[in-house]
Design goal:
The structure holds two protein chains of two kinds.
Chain A (H helix, E strand, L loop, with lengths): L1 H23 L3 H26 L7 H17 L5 H23 L5 H21 L1 H4 L5 E2 L5 E2 L2 E2 L3 H24 L1 H11 L1 H6 L4 H27 L1 E2 L6 H14 L5 H20 L3 H15 L5 H5 L11
Antiparallel strand pairs in A: 1-4, 2-3
Helix pairs in contact in A: 1-7, 2-7, 2-8, 2-10, 2-11, 2-12, 3-4, 3-5, 3-10, 3-11, 4-5, 4-10, 7-8, 8-10, 11-12, 12-13
Chain B lengths: L12 E10 L2 E11 L4 E5 L6 H9 L6 E6 L2 E2 L5 H6 L2 E4 L11 H13 L13 H13 L15 H13 L5 E5 L7 H15 L3 E5 L3 H7 L2 E6 L2 E6 L1 H6 L1 H8 L4
Parallel strand pairs in B: 3-8, 3-9, 6-7, 7-8
Antiparallel strand pairs in B: 1-2, 1-4, 4-5, 9-10
Helix pairs in contact in B: 3-4, 3-5
The chains are: A mainly alpha, B alpha/beta.
Chain lengths: 318, 256
């Protein structure tokens, strides 16, 4: 009970702080930084549904993330679809991509699942950067990704777009919190804890994994679309495997298997990246070092610090 | 869910020429048997006789290289593990398979959710499902873990973990129960309690029990099935099997 209360409190504090940022912080840079955090956090909590809850390490999330970005861009600029429907469609594209990946990748488990998702995602990367150049602009990407047009608000103003992001973020968090607490979420935890027993008590393990992967893909698609829109630009870089690596590092850093963890991880990652890259171009190496130290000294991530007091007490339900 | 079952609703399990091969090794080399509804069968045999493999073949964990399995005359040979569970086949494991990191009650609730819902509800917190909690609490009482409901499964004693293992098979009220050494590693002081538990849960079900403790098997079983080198050697009432010279030579004589 104490942990979940603490977690809820922390979540409320984070959301309150986020809403206050544009009021207190006036610089464009910090607004951009917090916007990035919101988008990546959405990506990371979706990633954690399969990584932290179901125990599947996907290295193919870049493909889902990037596909969402391309879907939104092409739908709005080429097909003239409105931004909000296109954002939903981007999520659907992410989910459909995840379904496609899962058909192949779910035949194997553990390390082979990770490697197969990685290989398939790189295939998407190569497709977008070379074969589908006429649609995706190849390595040059597509500039001029639009922002929403709603209620006559100018979302090309970063402050207004930030509020749009907060709304999407809060909806995303609320839905994920419900999913995790629902029988569906519990079933995923069961699959992670013991898949043989999970099947033996009657869970369709593969179906559950597939559903989780698709929901995760939806989150990836939406967040990829939001990122493209934030930067007014999309390139195959979003599809590159390093994107999958980043979201993994963020999630582990913050604490997998918790709702709060990935958000904290993203925040720490992005802030460090922002600050370190001002001093040295080797910031990625330093981040890597911090990541290694964290996995050694904080096996449950930053969120594990909050839970430590309550942990180890028999009978405490997480 | 915890009601004492009447024998009439117990399921019949029939295997026809079941074969399971691991590479060149035939772990189960053609087993045919008709397990009648409501009876308790003790499956015995020396180590490596293929008892657990036969059980895996029945529960769907092992791929058959030949033969068929019927549950109440329904061919379940091609059904997956979870589908067989839904069809009424419960199974406990020799090596405890419980959900670590969760409380005893949560463990049992997972079983109740799995049985009650084909599509797991995702629109409501799990804590709101009172019927599921009641299912779990009934089993909790049945296996004698009520006082430990909120203890993490990881902190249970070995005996209690075995009780939870058995409890997990009871959700969904299976008509056929496959128990793979439910007493494995249970200390002497808990043995009576554990045997008592098995006696209680098998009532009204068709049960296949693998157990190395001969006294227990002979005591609780209606019929004993003896397996040696992947094949059935003999079957019959405990007294018949005890008196069977081939069984004595192949198995009972060893180490006793």
């Amino acid at each position: 009970m104490t942990t979940s209360h603490l977690g809820r409190l922390a979540m409320a504090a984070i959301i309150a702080a986020m809403i206050l940022v544009p009021v207190i912080q006036t610089s464009e840079e910090s607004l951009n930084l917090v916007s990035l955090i919101l988008i990546w956090a959405l990506f990371a909590i979706g990633f954690d549904l399969i990584f932290g809850m179901a125990g599947m390490l996907s290295f193919g999330h870049a493909a889902l993330f990037g596909s969402g970005g391309y879907a939104l861009t092409l739908l709005v600029t080429k097909a003239g679809v409105g931004f909000v429907p296109a954002l939903g469609a981007a999520g659907m594209v992410g989910a459909v991509m995840a379904f496609g990946l899962s058909i192949f990748a779910l035949r194997v488990s553990g390390l082979f699942f990770s490697l197969l998702t990685l290989a398939l995602a790189q295939l998407v990367y190569i497709l977008a950067s070379t074969k589908l150049r006429s649609h995706t602009g190849g390595l040059d990407g597509i500039p001029g990704v639009p922002r929403p047009e709603l209620f006559g608000i100018d979302f090309y103003d970063n402050r207004n777009y930030y509020y749009f992001l907060i709304v999407v973020f809060i909806v995303g968090i609320a839905v994920m919190a419900l999913l995790r607490a629902s029988p569906f979420g519990k079933a995923l935890q069961a699959v992670q804890a013991n898949d043989v027993r999970a099947a033996q008590i009657g869970y369709n393990v593969q179906r559950l994994r597939q559903c989780a992967f698709m929901i995760s893909g939806f989150y990836a698609g939406v967040s990829g679309a939001l990122l493209a829109s934030l930067m007014f630009y999309i390139s195959p870089q979003m599809l590159h495997w390093t994107t999958s690596g980043d979201v993994l590092i963020m999630t582990v850093l913050g604490g997998k298997g918790t709702l709060l963890g990935p958000i904290l991880g993203v925040a720490v990652f992005e802030v460090l990246k922002e600050k370190l890259s001002q001093y040295t171009q080797h910031w990625y190496g330093i981040l890597g070092l911090i990541f290694i130290l964290c996995t050694i000294f904080l096996p449950n991530g930053i969120a594990g610090l909050f839970a430590r007091k309550a942990a180890g007490r028999p009978g405490d339900a997480p | 869910m915890s009601r004492v079952r009447d024998g009439a609703s117990a399921g019949g399990l029939r295997c026809e020429n079941i074969q399971v091969a691991f590479g060149g090794l035939k772990a189960v080399a053609g087993v045919s048997y008709d397990f009648k509804p409501g009876h308790l069968y003790g499956l015995i045999g020396p180590n490596g006789a293929g008892k657990t493999t036969l059980m895996n073949a029945l529960s769907g964990h092992a791929t058959l290289s030949g033969g068929r399995v019927f549950l109440d005359n329904r061919d379940i040979t091609r059904l997956s593990v979870h589908a067989r569970t839904r069809a009424g086949l419960g199974r406990s494991f020799q090596i405890t398979k419980i959900f670590s990191g969760m409380s005893v009650l949560e463990n049992l609730q997972l079983g109740a959710f799995a049985h009650r819902y084909r599509v797991q509800p995702f629109w409501m917190p799990a804590s709101r499902f009172r019927d599921v909690r009641e299912d779990a609490e009934k089993v909790l009482e049945q296996v004698g873990l009520t006082k430990l409901a909120h203890t993490s499964a990881d902190y249970l004693s070995h005996g209690d973990q075995r009780a939870l293992e058995v409890g997990l098979t009871l959700l969904g009220d299976p008509r056929v129960l496959l128990l793979d050494e439910p007493l494995a590693g249970v200390g002497h002081e808990r043995l009576d309690q554990a045997i008592d538990l098995i006696r209680r849960i098998v009532a009204g079900r068709t049960v296949l029990l693998i157990e190395h403790n001969m006294d227990v098997v002979m005591q609780v079983s209606h019929e004993i099935v003896v397996m040696v080198q992947g094949q059935l050697l003999a079957s019959g009432s405990p007294d018949e099997v005890r008196a069977n010279p081939a069984v004595r030579a192949a198995y009972l004589g060893e180490g006793e």
